[in-house]
Amino acid sequence: MKAVLDCEAGAARELLAQLRDRYPIALTRDLPCAKRWIREHVRGSERYGLVASSGAQRLKPHAIDIRVEINPVHWFLNDADDTRSSWYLEDAATEFQVQGLELDWVCMTWDADLRFAQSDWSYNAFRGSRWTSIMVFFVPP
Fold this sequence. Notes:
23% helix
């Protein structure tokens, strides 16, 4: 992902070719298809869950509302028959809510807060009734 976010297409392709067999990656705009794909690929007791960008303000029409706080204990520790658990793929956790937790499979949903435009990424925030562009400054290490 770092190569993708750094706009290094060649490096991203090389890494994907190396990882594809052990760590399959699928891309779709069809959420039910993504959930089905995850369920078909998981093996044994591997854990999976629905994760959304913390800036994903407009995924509500797809039943993903990141403003609803998940309880990480229920989401990550409860069994597959509990609708609050990650296994149900109903409640999306943000990248901050799952930080430090380990999932074997992630159904990652993204909104228009991060967009690829021409040759670089643009960062956006939903304010009021529309997306607005925000400036992000990176300080090199």
